[in-house]
Amino acid sequence: MNFFVFDLEATCWPDNRGKEQEIIEIGACIIDRYGSIKSTFNSFVRPVMNPGLSPYCKGLTHISQKDVDNARMFPQVINKMMDWAELPDEEYIFCAWGSADLKLMQSNAALHRFELEWLNPYVDIKSQYHQRKDIATPAGLYKVLKHHGMEFEGERHRALSDALNLSRIIVRYIDEWVY
C-alpha cells in the first residue's frame, strides 16, 4: 500500500465568507510503504467561477494570474493526475493535512460533475497527529515540523512544497496512521 499525499491551493480572499473556493494548484507525492518518495505531481488549475485571482490570493500563494490563465480545467488536471498515479490500478491511502483539502476536492468535483469515488481511504493527518500526541489546540504543519526539529522546505502555501513537507511527518510515523 502506498501513501498518496496531496495538498491544494485555492482561490481566496481576506474574508472568504460567501465565496466558494476553487482549486488553483494541486501538488502530490507518492510514498511507498518503506517511506521513500516514488514520484511527484504538480499542476495549476484554471478556476471557472472566480477566474481572477484576488491580490490577497496572489500575495499568499505567489501564484500569478498568468499561471492559472494558462492552466487546464479541473477535470483535465485530475485525469492527468490519475494517469500519473496509475489510478485506479494502484492502491493508495490518500492523505492531506486536515479535512479542508478533501472537502475542497469534493466540492470542485461536484462543480465539474466529476467522480472522485477513488479518493478513499482518506487519512486526515492533522487530526490523527494531534489525537496521538494529545494536543488540544491543533497547530499548523509549519509548527509541527519545527516541533520535530525540521525546517520547512520550499515555498509555503504552494501545493507541492506543502505535500512534500507533510510527507516528512507521514514518514516519521509511517506505521501509526489509522485508515
Task: Set out the fold topology.
Elements: E1 2-10, E2 23-31, E3 37-44, H1 55-61, H2 65-69, H3 74-85, E4 92-96, H4 100-111, E5 122-124, H5 125-132, H6 141-147, H7 159-172
Parallel strand pairs: 1-4, 4-5
Antiparallel strand pairs: 1-2, 2-3
List keywords for this structure.
Nucleotidyltransferase, domain 5, 5 strands, 5-stranded mixed sheet, 179 residues, 36% helix, 7 helices
How would you portray this structure in words?
The protein has 179 residues and is α/β, with parallel strands linked by helices. It has a single domain, classed as Ribonuclease H-like superfamily/Ribonuclease H (Nucleotidyltransferase, domain 5). Helix content is 36%, strand content 19%. The protein contains 7 helices and 5 strands; from the N terminus they run E-E-E-H-H-H-E-H-E-H-H-H. Strands 3-2-1-4-5 form a 5-stranded mixed beta sheet, with helices on both faces.
